[in-house]
Q: What sequence folds into this?
């Protein structure tokens, strides 16, 4: 046997759970446990293994950064929308006379309860309210679907590029 093909025997201690998973993987792949451990060690000791791990980590971090930026953008839109609504509401709402305030509170309570019920139903359906309102205003759903498909394709392309 040549020197290049000789092997060195090691006695290792590993966690019981790792041993079980190693047994399962060897049986599933139809290879020896030694070959799995040797491949894992070769990968770990490879000079470019650290670069590969770093590249994979950078890719994940980039994807998380893009997702965070989308969340931040959506949150800013929500804040601005709410602020605009509150400003509009406060601008156009007229004060009620004292005699009508109790009835207005009761009506407000009933409307709020109805709002919460509608919100719950809407969230269970899982559809976008913005899309529903847009469809009511502009029922050209084919154009909307094409735009949504284009936006999704662009997002996938951006994620693939990163």
A:
């Amino acid at each position: 046997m040549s020197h290049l093909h000789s092997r060195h025997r090691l006695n290792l201690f590993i966690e019981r759970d790792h041993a079980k998973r190693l047994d399962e993987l060897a049986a599933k792949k139809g290879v020896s446990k030694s070959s799995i451990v040797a491949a894992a060690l070769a990968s770990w000791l490879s000079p470019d293994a650290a670069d590969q791990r770093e590249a994979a980590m950078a890719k994940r971090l980039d994807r998380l950064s893009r997702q965070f930026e989308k969340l931040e953008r959506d949150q800013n839109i929500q804040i601005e929308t709410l602020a605009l609504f509150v400003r509009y509401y406060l601008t156009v709402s007229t004060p009620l006379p004292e005699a009508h305030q109790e009835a207005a509170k009761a009506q407000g309570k009933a409307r709020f309860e109805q709002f919460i019920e509608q919100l719950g139903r809407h969230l269970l359906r899982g559809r976008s309210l913005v899309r529903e309102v847009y469809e009511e205003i502009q029922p050209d759903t084919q154009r909307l679907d094409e735009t949504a498909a284009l936006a999704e394709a662009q997002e996938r392309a951006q994620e693939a590029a990163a």
Notes: Helices lie at 16-29, 33-45, 49-92, 101-125, 129-137, 141-161. The mean pLDDT is 85. The chain has three domains: 12-45, 56-94, 102-162.
